[in-house]
Amino acid sequence: MVSHRSFNLIILFTVFVGGCSTPLPPAAEPAQARSALTTALDAWQKGETAESLQARSPAIHVNDPGWSSGERLVKYEIQAEQAHGQGWKVQVLLTLQSGGGAASNRQVNYTIDTEPAVVIVRDVE
């Protein structure tokens, strides 16, 4: 059986150790997140590569499988946005064209972080 004193020491130790954890990064700044996404999608629409955005200031890191596989972005429409954990989630309707085929619409979600770096990731469908 655990004594009252031992129990108090265990609780005190747990609280002390728990308070030493690394804090979460700051929440994404919505205006900066939306601006970064718009910049990235405009670049894709103009035929630039996702990697070219890393040379900008601030650098924008993008992970979009459609972009990296060579799909062409014909147009896009931002439909909704909201906080998502520490990031910012944006729902976008993309009009994409693969090769010489017909354009098709695809609704996707992007999760964006703005600290410590601007990172845009298209959610897996």
Radius of gyration from the alpha-carbon trace, in angstroms: 21 Å
Our estimate of the beta-strand percent is 25-35%
Low-confidence stretches: none
Helix content: 25-40%
CATH fold type:
Nuclear Transport Factor 2, Chain: A
- Beta-strand segment tally: 5
Task: Give the SSE string.
Answer: HHEHEEEE
Just give the CATH class.
Alpha Beta
Structural class: alpha+beta
**How are the strands ordered across the major sheet?**
1-5-4-3-2
The 3D shape can be described as globular
Query: Which architecture does the CATH hierarchy give at level 2?
Result: Roll
Structural notes for this entry:
By secondary structure, this protein is α+β, with helices and mostly antiparallel strands. It has a single domain, classed as Nuclear Transport Factor 2, Chain: A (Roll). The chain is 28% helix and 34% strand. The chain has three helices and five strands. Strands 1-5-4-3-2 form a five-stranded mixed beta sheet. The N and C termini lie far apart (53 Å). The mean pLDDT is 88.
